[in-house]
Amino acid sequence: MSNMIFINLPVTDLAASMAFYQALGFENNPQFTDQTSACMVWSETINVMLLTHAKWRTFTARPIPPSNCSEVMLALSCDSRETVDAMNSAASENGGTADINPAQDLGFMYNRNLADPDGHVWEAMWMDPAAFQPEQQTA
């Protein structure tokens, strides 16, 4: 089995958060979803667990930060610049906030930041794989 990552996020409205992440391209895994949590799949190895505040508190007594704070920025690689733009559009159309930081366009890399309805920060990013190809040596 491959190593996997499960990102756990406290959310105030589970149904709205599920709809938000589905709009960004995540798929729900019903095997790990109930009235208190939802598993949203980004890839075979990356999952986001959305947890109601009550469920979150069964894992830790630490306070949930307010939605206007940032503790981490999670980056998701996208297939193209257009996908980055589409993800930001979907964020703003589905209860989140697009472009919470200025977009970066470095030519070989392009990214835009968004926040989900609870203020969790995501970076949609694209990198040109050709920019990282080893130079061919001539004989």
Automatic annotation (TrEMBL):
The keyword Oxidoreductase applies. One of its GO terms (molecular function) is dioxygenase activity. It comes from the Bacteria. The keyword Iron does not apply. InterPro entries: Glyas_Bleomycin-R_OHBP_Dase, Glyoxy/Ble-like_N. Residues 5-41 form the Glyoxalase/Bleomycin resistance-like N-terminal domain. Keywords: Dioxygenase, Oxidoreductase. This is Glyoxalase/bleomycin resistance/extradiol dioxygenase family protein. It comes from Bowmanella dokdonensis.
